[in-house]
Amino acid sequence: MRVVLFTSAEPLYLPRYLQPIFEAHADTIDQVVIAPFDTSTVEELRSQAGMYGASAGIRMALRYGRSRVLDALPGQVARRVTGRYHSVSAVARAYGVTVERIPDVSDPTFVERMEALEPDLLLSIVAGQRLPRPVLESADDAVNLHGSLLPKYRGRATAFWPLFYGDARTGVTAHRMTERFDAGPILAQQAFPLDDADTVDSVYRKLAETGASLAVELLDAYPELPAERPNETTPEDYHGLPGPEERRLFYERGNAFL
Fold this sequence. Notes:
Formyl transferase, globular, single chain, 41% helix, two-stranded parallel sheet, 18% strand
């Protein structure tokens, strides 16, 4: 089996998400493709600031900065100091998996390489870009792991919205990929309960743990996959990053980011 894993470079949650997958299936993952979000750094920082606000935003920025510093340390130093990896590249290299950053996954050169590789499975976990049809068709199958119980909360900030709306549970959905984000048929879901003590941070950690478990189960069973079921979505199911008004209401309801 030959798997290509598409993801992004988020340093806080993705390394812990991906490590159990590499532990179980590094021998079948041909490469990791880091497909960064197709917005500018300034636009992304502005959006994140709108979501977290000043206080939580500064704390998140410090955590990101610490991860970058630790990742820059030589060899396994950061792993020995903190007990975990601090970048997608570091955890992939530790398991002998090739990593490549592709700024534009629709670039014809990259598409041709994927077509020549002929992977069995494309696995997407928080990839920042939409995979175009030629890339999807280069493989026998393409599966995305999304951090909500679809069709609810298509889009981003999937740890925020279930808390914002007071849901009793959330989870991870595996679905076949199409050219529309989070819209393909559902293959499997794993849920976990939410409680009053949960924060956005704790939910992201639980999503990482749950998503890793679901990914390992799917790879263990491949090429057999669960039967499809509909993923009937409406425009109301889509949620982007929250802004200042949603953040204000979030705090008023007693929720927290960290």
